[in-house]
Amino acid sequence: PLADARARMQEAWNLIVKAWTEREPFAWHGQYYNYERVCIWPRPIQKPHPPIVLPADSEEGLEIAARRRVPTGTAYRSMGRSRAVLNRYRVLAAEHGWTPTPEDCLVVRHVYVSETNDRARREAEPHLDYFWQRLISYHQGAMRLLGQSPTPPSRAAEARTAEDLPFWEFDFDLCQKEGISIIGDPDYVIREIRSQVRELGVGVFIGLFQFGSMPHERACKGIRLFAEKVLPELKRD
User: Fold this and answer.
1) What confidence tens digit (pLDDT) does each residue in 56-102 have?
2) How far from chain centre, in Å, is Cα 37?
3) Cβ distance 125 to 133 under 8 Å?
4) 237 exposed, middle or buried (CB, 10 Å; 0-12, 13-18, 19+)?
5) Rounded CA gap, 139 and 118, in Å?
6) Cα 144 from chain centroid?
7) Which of 109, 108, 103 has its CA nearest to residue 202?
8) What distance separates the 2 farthest-apart alpha carbons in the chain?
9) Alpha helices in 38-185 (DSSP H)
């Protein structure tokens, strides 16, 4: 049940961390999970346990990440929304007595590199549209389950920002304008990544190089140009 989701997640979190770190078999009898004997093998290599990241957008999610002192971040959010989320995370972390580093803050972006900005758009736009307008349209069903209306805002309202529109109404121009995607020639991609990292204070930038209906060969082209033309410049920072 959706009403139990947060509590189930937190109990599962505690159980998994204990399984990772407890050297002896143990019993677990919680509200949602019951096991007479828990002992995992092989043991995790990382000590004290594998890293945990909790991406969050809601106040409750950010509070959990801050309280548990784990990294957080945003995906598919505008620069404005990403800034607000990460700033709130930093405030909540301070309330719990610690200060996140840039490595505790991450952002996810669609990235595609081509020889020119115009060519990058021609090669990537249909696949970005497929991502938003076909794949992400499942959010409409999720909203119905929550008793919310999936009806998009009226076009007459002249929506101007990503926060005014549901995901399945996003398009290329909106995503580029609000920093949700970074698609262009090497110089554009370098400038935009540097700008976003600096403005958001993030230390982890995650690029989605294959998205929507993009074929393998085209994704490989974007990755190759990123590796040859963009990454060496970013490594200078």
Assistant:
1) 999 999 999 999 999 999 999 999 999 999 999 999 999 999 999 99
2) 35
3) no
4) exposed
5) 31
6) 23
7) 103
8) 63
9) 59-68, 79-95, 117-130, 139-145, 172-177
